[in-house]
Records
---
Amino acid sequence: MSKQSAVEPPVLGGDDAVAPCCPPLTAGELSAQDAERMAAMFKALSDPVRLRLFSKVASHPGGEACVCDIADVGVSQPTVSHHLKKLREAGLLTSERRGTWVYYAVAPAVVAAMSAMLDLRTTD
Amino acid sequence: MSKQSAVEPPVLGGDDAVAPCCPPLTAGELSAQDAERMAAMFKALSDPVRLRLFSKVASHPGGEACVCDIADVGVSQPTVSHHLKKLREAGLLTSERRGTWVYYAVAPAVVAAMSAMLDLRTTD
């Protein structure tokens, strides 16, 4: 069990808050702990199939999609489930069961935090 | 050899251009080819030590650092070299030898492209 959920999603202040774990990478040296947390988020997007699934959810109207809408990425259903679980564990997607289907939605604050980390613009 | 350099950096129009490979993830479904390319960039940042090295370069004055300035991340010099090579192969860092030392610099266009991919703001 500990192996499956070793990575905790970042602590967030709310839907629009940027995770306090995620300063821009230009802000200074990362602590080892922050680096672990941030690397886990990038790792969630480091697989092409996972990235396609994430993109399918993100580009779906409302940023939410039924698993039945997004499973067509050329891999088996168990593999799709595995990848969606990884995205959920990394905090990038949330999920909710409604009737027969599970619906996935982008966690905007976490994704915004990742984007902000890579925003290297400076004021000089 | 082919194993080491399977991933090509994205094609860029110039230092300030955003890689044409990298639409925001909300823009639509990713092609399999774009997903491969983008996943490789995220993979480069999916290791905590690599992320710390990248952050050290990015936060160094001028966005450039000598390998002698950044090697203190608690791993051996060959491991540092290995990680810097991976970041270079993914297109996130550039390198230049000057005298004894190799200097690494952030490739701002590639990093900006990654940030833009994760910019999920919509106009609605």
---
Amino acid sequence: MTDLVTFGETMLRLTPPAGDRLETTDTYDVQPGGAESNVACGASLLGVDSVWLSKLPKSPLGQRVVRELRGHGVRTGVAWADPDDHRLGTYYLEHGGTPRGTNVIYDRADSAVTTVTPDELPVAAIKGAERFYTSGITPALSPTTLATTRTLLEAAREADTRTAFDLNYRSKLWDPDTAAETYRDLFPLIDTLVAPVRDARNVLDREGTPIEIAHSLATDHGFDTVVLTRGDSGATALHADEIYEQPAFETETFDAIGTGDAFVAGFLARRIRGDDVDTALEYAAAAASLKRTVGGDVAVIRPEEVEAVVAESGDEISR
Amino acid sequence: MTDLVTFGETMLRLTPPAGDRLETTDTYDVQPGGAESNVACGASLLGVDSVWLSKLPKSPLGQRVVRELRGHGVRTGVAWADPDDHRLGTYYLEHGGTPRGTNVIYDRADSAVTTVTPDELPVAAIKGAERFYTSGITPALSPTTLATTRTLLEAAREADTRTAFDLNYRSKLWDPDTAAETYRDLFPLIDTLVAPVRDARNVLDREGTPIEIAHSLATDHGFDTVVLTRGDSGATALHADEIYEQPAFETETFDAIGTGDAFVAGFLARRIRGDDVDTALEYAAAAASLKRTVGGDVAVIRPEEVEAVVAESGDEISR
Amino acid sequence: MTDLVTFGETMLRLTPPAGDRLETTDTYDVQPGGAESNVACGASLLGVDSVWLSKLPKSPLGQRVVRELRGHGVRTGVAWADPDDHRLGTYYLEHGGTPRGTNVIYDRADSAVTTVTPDELPVAAIKGAERFYTSGITPALSPTTLATTRTLLEAAREADTRTAFDLNYRSKLWDPDTAAETYRDLFPLIDTLVAPVRDARNVLDREGTPIEIAHSLATDHGFDTVVLTRGDSGATALHADEIYEQPAFETETFDAIGTGDAFVAGFLARRIRGDDVDTALEYAAAAASLKRTVGGDVAVIRPEEVEAVVAESGDEISR
Amino acid sequence: MTDLVTFGETMLRLTPPAGDRLETTDTYDVQPGGAESNVACGASLLGVDSVWLSKLPKSPLGQRVVRELRGHGVRTGVAWADPDDHRLGTYYLEHGGTPRGTNVIYDRADSAVTTVTPDELPVAAIKGAERFYTSGITPALSPTTLATTRTLLEAAREADTRTAFDLNYRSKLWDPDTAAETYRDLFPLIDTLVAPVRDARNVLDREGTPIEIAHSLATDHGFDTVVLTRGDSGATALHADEIYEQPAFETETFDAIGTGDAFVAGFLARRIRGDDVDTALEYAAAAASLKRTVGGDVAVIRPEEVEAVVAESGDEISR
Amino acid sequence: MTDLVTFGETMLRLTPPAGDRLETTDTYDVQPGGAESNVACGASLLGVDSVWLSKLPKSPLGQRVVRELRGHGVRTGVAWADPDDHRLGTYYLEHGGTPRGTNVIYDRADSAVTTVTPDELPVAAIKGAERFYTSGITPALSPTTLATTRTLLEAAREADTRTAFDLNYRSKLWDPDTAAETYRDLFPLIDTLVAPVRDARNVLDREGTPIEIAHSLATDHGFDTVVLTRGDSGATALHADEIYEQPAFETETFDAIGTGDAFVAGFLARRIRGDDVDTALEYAAAAASLKRTVGGDVAVIRPEEVEAVVAESGDEISR
Amino acid sequence: MTDLVTFGETMLRLTPPAGDRLETTDTYDVQPGGAESNVACGASLLGVDSVWLSKLPKSPLGQRVVRELRGHGVRTGVAWADPDDHRLGTYYLEHGGTPRGTNVIYDRADSAVTTVTPDELPVAAIKGAERFYTSGITPALSPTTLATTRTLLEAAREADTRTAFDLNYRSKLWDPDTAAETYRDLFPLIDTLVAPVRDARNVLDREGTPIEIAHSLATDHGFDTVVLTRGDSGATALHADEIYEQPAFETETFDAIGTGDAFVAGFLARRIRGDDVDTALEYAAAAASLKRTVGGDVAVIRPEEVEAVVAESGDEISR
Ligand SMILES: [Ca+2]
Ligand SMILES: [Ca+2]
Ligand SMILES: [Ca+2]
Ligand SMILES: [Ca+2]
Ligand SMILES: [Ca+2]
Ligand SMILES: [Ca+2]
Ligand SMILES: [Ca+2]
Ligand SMILES: [Ca+2]
Ligand SMILES: [Ca+2]
Ligand SMILES: [Ca+2]
Ligand SMILES: [Ca+2]
Ligand SMILES: [Ca+2]
Ligand code: NI
Ligand code: NI
Ligand code: NI
Ligand code: NI
Ligand code: NI
Ligand code: NI
Ligand code: NI
Ligand code: NI
Ligand code: NI
Ligand code: NI
Ligand code: NI
Ligand code: NI
Ligand code: NI
Ligand code: NI
Ligand code: NI
Ligand code: NI
Ligand code: NI
Ligand code: NI
């Protein structure tokens, strides 16, 4: 029985070794990555029965993606495309310490998923599921993915499958105004909204404290739950008219990419289990802090590890 | 003073470690590769002053390409494109022993070079050069590259720069009939044609022995020189109504990709120096055999090494 | 719907880099390996819906095994053991060219699987399956695995699931006489016997040509099918009183481990599809030749590749 | 002439690359590690003539251990066991930043050393030595190693070789009560006790400040010297009724494993040289801080480096 | 048109992996490094048209150096030496965290450059250039390089090419008194002096605050500009009787080697562009902070990155 | 008790990965290598108690050499030199398949060993030994090493320690005439001469068949034993007026460097054990064939492996 269905693009992530630059490296570490598969994988490792829907070229590259997700325990509902006309998106990721920062170069235009239609996907999987999740990246990819996103959200609504949506605004995909318009069209179909406060301010034009923003979003769009993330400063949630504040856990960062997806995976894992928002929020923050110690997009983290962080005893050598 | 100008696409080549498969690997070796830059680099290392013309995204990925070519001593005449709209092509290369063979997956559609026009390029470089080289890949990339190829060949013709063209038929880019039609349109602008016998047969519809094919091509299209390559079986050249036969040198293959480009680089290096076709042919075959011992697309080979092979004394430890 | 169920031990395989020795290396390549999971994985990649049954410690090491198998598309029916008392077997593999040969050191004593009982396993999976496969390694591991092997074979027999058994004699696990006695006890439950001719001679005390040995085994034990493998010299099969001879395909060996399992995977894949023994035998030999070009225990090979070898056109660069 | 003899188990340590997890990695760094060989190696590199006694399988894996120790300058007194019945213990080590911490999985049951008896070992080496060292891990491995530990300690006592013992409590080997009982039986044979304060509290049931605990242990068991370590907070020693306090030196940790062994190696190196406890304690703390900058179990550190840290001038580039 | 000419030695730098020690490693990362080529490369990447003058053995090792510099966009004016009598210098670099520090072992005696004379070099390049740069390492290498350094500085002076000189005192090459004497002989030929305050104190025997030292040096030797660097504490400049203070930017250090050269490259890049000393100083400090995040001697840093640090917005993920 | 003492230079060997070239690589595999330590290590691994005499800089680089040799079980008698004035020789090794061949660049001038005098070495070790070995490389390094070689050979002669000498002519160290003169001066001190037939012809000016050359050398110089090696064609020995012919064993070459040293190690191992020349010759040839399958200069080969090759059963997987 499926707990969670996610839908979105997964790319090959190409990363040079630490200290190397994209313009000089001769080696990449390669690994699939994408917000919605990151959430599916992270949730699966935390005990959630997860399905990921997408479209891939029927080639070793598409198989590379499926293998990784299956390894994390995710079932895949893939529309296989002719590899002669459909490519796999890639993204180049260069880690750098302060003050250099991390640099990402996307090469995702015209990837197979930009052509995915609902009839190519096992949409029925959504019907039996507890939750459906996608993010603001997916509708930005193409008019077709926007239409498909809407159709899948409607399918969830009809099936009483609760929906979650992470704003995930990407300035390289669209401008804030276009994005905001699309978001607003989709919001009526969303139960739980997750968003960085920064995006709520810059893209959704909200002002005030996180608490004020959460209230204003919930009021305007009727969300059941709003979760605003603030990076190192933690997260603020609004649910059933109650506000929850959660600080971030201390962490030594090895790879920051995927932190937000780990947060969502942890949050949904606990909500699907029936836990309250405050419990889920703490679990989400702990999962996010653990993710940063692991290389790659995916939070390869087990429930007992998250629980140990929550119980504040995760930093000893056990032997 | 420039000896050789080449024009064409260079991609990032992504290769898993030996024994790994594209569908399972977590690492790529990365290196730029492309027929025309391979020829420019190989010729440069053999002492030819070479320039490569192309178009690249102005990004660390485009810089990665330029760095590699400069390292080989090639000067680059690059039209820099906005990296937000123009991508760098990539290709995935999986080596495999018999009976698996080598597998190549191209991801080159819509790369920056497909939009290159003559006015973006330092075409004047062709004017002072001895030779201009491009291959049958370039006109296959887009109508724009076809037009630009024709314009550059015409510029060479006007400048009395001799032209060389490697058929390099790629079935993943176009079908034989379309290719043949384009080839025939460009042939009047070509002095030296290099082609695999196989492509002469399958694409140009030639029949008979290599000698017969060379004669028929020269007769039909007025080439100054025709060189037909036969892989392990060597090469056949026709020039000034004389036939030259060159067997292949024995070689232990580490990386077969780029063998044909090494052959052309060796051939042009000697012709530019003023050597006869038979001398150039032997040098070309030796360069090709050496290339196969080196990883990567480029023949990182020095003149004294080619000469040692020609002199049949290249296989001892020198110490 | 399940096509194939296999049952057996999977270990972590630890391999130094090429040219290094176990007594000097500082690095291992690590990958799960075991005859029955190799067959399940190989068959899965060739299109067979496969399930693997076994017992593992509930630890990151046990998860490492499950991840790999899932990546190959295999479903896993695992009895999870307390990692404080149950270990994962390992094996150290050193490749060496002639005359050094390959060296294997097993460290498999007391692994979790030696305690596996039928009630811990989802035996029902066998009931709906086309075929059940295990090898002569499994009953050698412990009296418990011997008993469980027998029970699973009986379950298959009762369910009309056809059974296949690879002799896989391991001199480091038991002596020939003990092995032969156990084999003979299990043979009445076996439909298809696969065995190296060498083991048939040395362990089962058979004499004569492969054809004579196949006949004598079939006569004595009532096998539906007998397949005798002869390494580089190919294989001989007996089925329905007919003899089939299959030469080995030429291959450049990167990693010889798992060749026999690839052969079995290919054979079963075609038999499950309903093909005749001669077709399956040729497919098996092609899969085995391809396996040797790939690193690791598992034949990461796709159906179109096997078909290309059978059609004798697998050794060109496709581009 | 031998300064130091140690006795204990050495395993192969298997470590994934930084940022990788045991459940996903395809590579291990491999290196021998064990408390008593770590002390022997660390002391040897600090100028102490050291011998290590143990039992190993006579195989490339056992040779791997001996090679590493010899490389560090240690002489080995090894009882070689039949590799068909005796295995080498291994341990899997996963480093992780805060809050993940370091995870260790031991696979040491039934290793060759668990069967070692005094008559297999060159016990005479203890007779001429200055010091004999073993740790609380060794008697926990098996009744046989407990008996052998006792015999070797008695041999040291008879030979006027001073003995040192690090409590090294391992909860995965035994429970606190059993451990404490064994410790108390061995304590009369010990001159210098080293113990983490934490273990003194939890296993030996001591209460109070480190100073109070040191006094109570010395009083109860008649130790010549007691050293209590407190991680980042330094160490406290009691000797000849005097208390010495030593803070920890600042350090950037690359690999924390083996810090305690480096401390003991540094302490014994100076005590063997005839230095006082306070000098030895400072040297020990400096060696421990340096060890954390080096990968692997062993403190690959030279005397001049320790002296530079003591002299507070170790952090400049020297060129 | 050339902006900057530098002259000095470049060696192969050999570095073990992080956490490994020179006495145990089996692998080196290899990359050319040398103060004057580091400055040429850094400046080139920041948009300066740079030429590097030196002498190298005509061998693959000499070519290795040229390739790297060309990759960074530097043109090379190399005197090629017979590799049978002339070697390439190397240096071994071991990174270590606190308190271990970084260790450098030079193996540069008798390298080809120690024999370089002005007539072997394209000295004319200096004539058309904006600036000429060398450092205090070059005259320390041999009497020949001292004489050549002087000749090149004189050539710059005559050509109205402004000169810059980094003190770069190396205690492994000469003692402070000999160095100071040479420096003082060369100072009349220098326009811009860069020096660590520490060296100004210890080698040039200056006392007082950085400001006092800058004034005293300018007064005594008539420098147009004096820049004194103070590591983490920033830099102080004196120009046209005005003092400029620049703090260091915060940085996470991956590789500290080459920080000073990055500073000089940044400073000269802006001065060549015509910017004021204060602008150049800030740019220099930002380039230095970025360099520390990149592996290798060379500051592989682009202008927009330096500008982003100056604008204090360089530490976000851009996507 | 010492069986074998060797004397000579050991360098750091720097090797790029397979398929890479010295002019492009960014990585070296590093490992000590030198003819006389190769022989000492190879013999030690074959059961011979071996000592190696030499001089090294007292630095991590010198320690790197000692560690490796100790790991192979060799005791080292090292004269430690001040690392500020004495360097460690290095050599760059590039493997290449046919027709490229292997390339070696020596950087050994002025290494510490060129200054070694007998009084710095534990010459007494030779007195108790069975055999003393050095090669024609050592006297070529400097007048000092020539004098020391002579002194050590004389010490052996006086002590009735039998001497062996491998011609090992290196054209990069001296010319044939100078070499031959030195050889002839040393020959009266040599019992066993090993030489490639090629060197016997080109350097010692011998003509005729190997048998004729062996006889003429023995007659002229009074050798007890002469062994002439012929690469793939095997070896010819003359001893006590009898001729022995030994073909080479078939081998798949991974690393050809050190083959001759492995041959000598095998030969001496058996002669020291008291075996006849024919037995030793076969063992030597088997050891040489095994060496070629192992990376590095040293024959990491155990006696049972050599014996298996001699018994022609070494090429199976044992499991
Ligand atoms: Ca490389
Ligand atoms: Ca990541
Ligand atoms: Ca990996
Ligand atoms: Ca290639
Ligand atoms: Ca290592
Ligand atoms: Ca495998
Ligand atoms: Ca791998
Ligand atoms: Ca360790
Ligand atoms: Ca190694
Ligand atoms: Ca560097
Ligand atoms: Ca690199
Ligand atoms: Ca070697
Ligand atoms: Ni490269
Ligand atoms: Ni992964
Ligand atoms: Ni990363
Ligand atoms: Ni991976
Ligand atoms: Ni993987
Ligand atoms: Ni390759
Ligand atoms: Ni490459
Ligand atoms: Ni090592
Ligand atoms: Ni090591
Ligand atoms: Ni393998
Ligand atoms: Ni392998
Ligand atoms: Ni993998
Ligand atoms: Ni570590
Ligand atoms: Ni090593
Ligand atoms: Ni570094
Ligand atoms: Ni590189
Ligand atoms: Ni590089
Ligand atoms: Ni090698």
---
Amino acid sequence: MIFQYFQSNSESVTNGICALLALASVKMYSSFDFHCPCLAKYNMAYGLGIMFIPPVALFLCGLIVNRQFVVMLEEWKRPTGDRKKNLAIIRYMCSSVLQRAMIAPVVWILVTLLDGKCFVCAFSSSVDPDKFPGFVTNITPYNEVQRLLSKVPCKDDELIRNNTSRKAVSRYLKCWSQAFGWSVLLTLIVIAFLARSLRPCFNQATFLQTRYWSNYIDIEQKIFDETCCEHTRDFAHKCILHFFESMQKEIKRRRFHAHPGKEE
Amino acid sequence: MIFQYFQSNSESVTNGICALLALASVKMYSSFDFHCPCLAKYNMAYGLGIMFIPPVALFLCGLIVNRQFVVMLEEWKRPTGDRKKNLAIIRYMCSSVLQRAMIAPVVWILVTLLDGKCFVCAFSSSVDPDKFPGFVTNITPYNEVQRLLSKVPCKDDELIRNNTSRKAVSRYLKCWSQAFGWSVLLTLIVIAFLARSLRPCFNQATFLQTRYWSNYIDIEQKIFDETCCEHTRDFAHKCILHFFESMQKEIKRRRFHAHPGKEE
Amino acid sequence: MIFQYFQSNSESVTNGICALLALASVKMYSSFDFHCPCLAKYNMAYGLGIMFIPPVALFLCGLIVNRQFVVMLEEWKRPTGDRKKNLAIIRYMCSSVLQRAMIAPVVWILVTLLDGKCFVCAFSSSVDPDKFPGFVTNITPYNEVQRLLSKVPCKDDELIRNNTSRKAVSRYLKCWSQAFGWSVLLTLIVIAFLARSLRPCFNQATFLQTRYWSNYIDIEQKIFDETCCEHTRDFAHKCILHFFESMQKEIKRRRFHAHPGKEE
């Protein structure tokens, strides 16, 4: 019931779902138990994996949950009848679906960047250790330096616990992570702003028309489903009444012929 | 009453039940007290048991709770009357029931994998100890290494408490567990996405017809039940009225014949 | 649904959104994990970045979220019909939109200034160390002094932990930061007070007229959208009823010709 309510396609409801998905992604990230492996080989894969695999999953979820996505596909594949297919409508629906599906993944990536843990885990081995005097002595061999750097995200590790510059390296990486996060956020907001403010400057009338037809397709499907249900119900009702009537006739017939006096 | 409400088969309600079962499985896992035995022989069995036995139970629950499952079985076994049996309808109902029953078990498995505790318990003995310098010295005998590895999930254990690399092993396993979890999740979402997006591309008309008839079968049963109830009520009403009437007749008859003056 | 409710343009609702955005900015700042890099080169950029990039983002968000902004653009770009375009109305809407979009960024800047962490991070290198006797000895080279100053915001850093004057420098900067914050706040309040108290002294009548027309434009759009929806629904309903009717005719026709007696 809740799911179907969510799948009804008035724009505001769809917006609500996207907001919920975005909130869920934040909630998931904060409840997620992040364990950097702190092994030079796995760090990068794990950090980037946590950063980019869930967004792919969330993106596909955003498409699956959005009723308009299926409506769009059906409109695209339907046999052409009296109503001509209009590519502009399909394009409009497609862009609207994609935009909404992008929200949750983008929120996930931004949250990971602003939090910085994944970034520290992924790139701690790529830091130039010479920037941090006191992190390693000059005589430390290259291999050992790499191992030390890969341990930076694990503050409880034996090897790194007493290293005075561990925090400095971690702070440096977190600061870069946040800088990336904010610049991505800013870019996205600027794009959204431009899209919203430039749209009314171009052909507004055709846009309104496209929106009208996209609404029409959606509502046509819904009313078709409802009418199907009613039709089923009527049909089943008739069949069952018919069954009971014929049963009663059968009973009456039996009463007269087989045991004419027994039941009365 | 709540149970019957849950068993009414409008698709959205069934979806709601599945969502509830999935939530329940998450809740169950988080309230479940996981105690790894930390004995080489039992670790694997315990870990994999917690990972795969509850999903079987949840799968069966998903079938029990779903009204459509019984409807499907009845449709399959009913004598062929005027309405021909259509295998496509049974297949459609079967796949819909299975899909919904799979949700809760899959959620359980994903939650255990993303949490990682079960995985660490099950596979801690299978880790190659040479990857973690400092976990064991070279002279430790094989048996002892196995015992140490099987103690990894129990951080308070006497033997392992002072081992500096215990955390590294645990971290390594958790990272693999999460990697498995995310890849399973991603695969499932991709499959769901493909299923949803490819369906409209193939014969949509027959799909709609199948759905219409699957709805019909469901509603026919419900209306049959309701009509049966009404019919029973009517019949019982008539019988009881008849009984009271005949009783009153009996009383009147007795009044006149047996004790004509006694009661007046 | 919530989103659409927020986008309805009664003034009080718009005020509500702005208040929410402002609250969100405060909440975001307090939940934000501020990690000053404590490296001379990055400090200024990071501190000022946190202070001024989020406000830009919030300002653009304030424009995106405000429905009046799009209404204004559409009014500006619409083809002139029977109703003449009035620049005063557009100017009135523009100023109202800008005012509301300014609230959240101003709140963010004030909060950062009153909190002081960003300011300390940004300007710790610019402090004259001679003001704080005991911070450095006279023989310390210039480079080293700069490094020490850049470490002031990180109180756990090895280099600065035992420095007795670190707190004094930090306190000095925080005090300046708060002074700036309070003076900005005071200036803004004075401007708001003057704007509000001087407006009734000038042409109040034309102001009321402008406001009337700005409301009209907004409500015209909303009623257009609603009427579109109703129209779509009516149209779809008619089409589907027509489809079912023609289907039933088809069924009846088939009954008579192909299997005249079988279904009856």
